[in-house]
Write a structure and sequence with these properties.
The complex is a heterodimer of chains A (166) and B (329). Chain A has 166 residues and is mainly alpha-helical. In chain A, 72% of the residues lie in helices and 0% in strands. The longest helix of chain A is centred in the middle third of the chain and has 26 residues. The chains are: A mainly alpha (166), B alpha+beta (329).
């Protein structure tokens, strides 16, 4: 039963990522919306990886790839990187308190933005310029406390369930 | 002497193994995703075909997921409408005055055209029908501008078909699946369209630049082009027909460019022009589906108020679009 909210939240984030009304013409918000599933994936990878099966990460990425029409496999790569970064960072998640986890998310976003920029250079530069990526990263990092609060409520508790440790 | 591990130590070891397995799974997933990118580069046509086949069912799921968030999107649009109301009202008043002045002239020209066509035995152009569908998804990225719509081969849509909404030309289809199509918006970096500018009918190429405006290329008589000139499609065989409203010429730091009439950030319903024969075939085979009537009514009302691209777009297209539209949702 504990798996339903995280999967549902990931499904909603996947739906929002390529929704036609998201972004409102702002390229940075557009990219930030595309990264929303990555935020959900990182959140659960960092806290309780057992509630999010790896196949859900794959399915989310494939959905966005199919619907958005960009380079195929691109968003699947971004989301799976987010999953791996979260898993690598989780050993420190129990050590740090909330601001520490916020900083970890910041590091993850910077790594993902760097990856997107590099992929854009390799795939023909049609993803986003550095300025847009920087703005999108700022939006996501600034909005993380709110996003984390929504994800915590989705988990069924206001404070969030205890973190899994290695 | 060997100490037997306690239950706690065993659990810890199990957790460690589980964690390593998860990480290994994650790394495998990364490898798989990167291989998808490589496969997509090597076999672009095959991957596009598979993608368009999957897009139909996924679009249906997406609509269900987006339904709870729809009020939020409408809230944003209403706020933006409210903020722009005054300037929009003033613009519409001016436009209305100008159109009233043109109305009598248009009627007169239409009569003359009909007379001349009858005299010169002009071969009538093939009829066009149109299907109306909702935009399901959009591209993510700063330069790539495309949208997925819920009408495909089943509704008679073919690659290269013109897509428009109540304001003007939106773009053209480039990938068509059984139940969905992908539309390349005019502002996409790879978009190119032949246009006719101003009263001098200067033919040029309008090129997407990845931002809100279009660049003008190959305009031989650019000295005949002035800021404020109306831009319409020049027509291409088997593609976008002649006379569809696109935008107007504006001055910018990069020289004269085209500002499209369509607000690409607020695309909701769009119409795809299809050959009349194909559309009736699709209709005959019962492949059309009912639409979201409330949204369609709102769309048609807006069309009636804002001035349809089909009607205002000029003689030939207006004449050919006589069949009633169908909605595929």
């Amino acid at each position: 039963m504990g798996q339903i909210p995280p999967l549902l939240l990931l499904a909603i984030a996947t739906g929002v990522a390529s929704a036609p009304w998201v972004g409102g013409g702002n390229a940075a918000l557009d990219i930030a919306a595309g990264l929303l599933p990555a935020v959900v994936i990182h959140y659960w990878a960092l806290r309780r990886a057992s509630v999010l099966p790896v196949i859900a990460v794959l399915f989310s990425g494939l959905c966005v790839d199919v619907l958005s029409g960009g380079p195929f496999g691109f968003w699947t790569s971004v989301y799976s990187f987010s999953w791996v970064i979260g898993l690598v960072q989780r050993r420190w998640a129990t050590v740090f308190w909330k601001p520490g986890r916020w900083a970890m998310f910041g590091v993850a976003v910077v790594i993902l933005a760097g990856g997107i920029s590099a992929a854009g250079a390799v795939l023909g530069g049609d993803i986003a310029p550095a300025g847009v990526l920087l703005e999108a990263s700022i939006w996501l990092i600034a909005g993380y406390p709110l996003l984390a609060a929504i994800l915590r409520i989705g988990d069924g508790t206001r404070e969030g369930r205890p973190l899994e440790s290695d | 002497m060997r100490v037997l591990p306690t239950r706690r130590l065993l659990r810890r070891r199990e957790r460690k193994v589980g964690s390593r397995l998860k990480l290994a799974g994650g790394l495998l997933l990364v490898g798989f995703a990167l291989s998808l990118v490589v496969v997509g580069r090597i076999y672009p046509a095959e991957v596009a075909d598979v993608r368009m086949r999957l897009a139909g069912p996924l679009a249906s799921i997406l609509r269900v997921l987006q339904a709870p968030l729809e009020p939020l999107s409408q809230l944003g649009q209403r706020y933006s409408d409210y903020m722009n109301m005054q300037s929009e009202l003033a613009r519409l008043r001016n436009e209305n005055e100008e159109l009233k002045g043109w109305q009598w002239r248009a009627v007169e020209l239409e009569r003359q055209l009909a007379d001349l066509s009858a005299l010169s035995k002009v071969v009538s152009e093939p009829g066009l029908d149109y299907v109306t569908s909702r935009v399901v998804a959009r591209s993510i990225g700063a330069h790539s501008r495309s949208a997925l719509i819920g009408a495909g081969r089943g509704a008679g849509v073919r690659a290269g078909a013109a897509v428009l909404n109540q304001r003007g030309l939106v773009g053209s289809t480039y990938e068509v699946g059984p139940g969905t199509s992908r539309v390349r918006l005019l502002t996409d970096k790879t978009s190119r369209i032949l246009v006719s500018i101003g009263r001098g009918l200067v033919t040029a190429e309008a090129e997407g630049a990845g931002d809100e405006l279009l660049d003008i290329r190959d305009g031989g008589r650019m000295f005949d082009v002035a800021v404020g000139d109306e831009v319409r499609s020049a027509g291409e065989p088997g593609g976008v027909p002649r006379g569809l409203r696109i935008g107007r010429v504006v001055g910018s730091a990069k020289g004269m460019r085209i500002e499209p009439y369509v607000d690409f950030d607020r695309l909701d319903f769009v119409s795809v022009l299809v050959p009349a024969g194909l559309a009736s075939e699709a209709r005959g085979s019962g492949r059309e589906t009912g639409g979201d009537e409330a949204h369609l009514t709102a769309h048609l009302n807006e069309e009636a108020e804002g001035g349809s691209a089909n009607r205002v777009g000029g003689g030939p297209v207006a004449d050919r679009l006589v069949a009633p539209s169908r909605t595929v949702d």
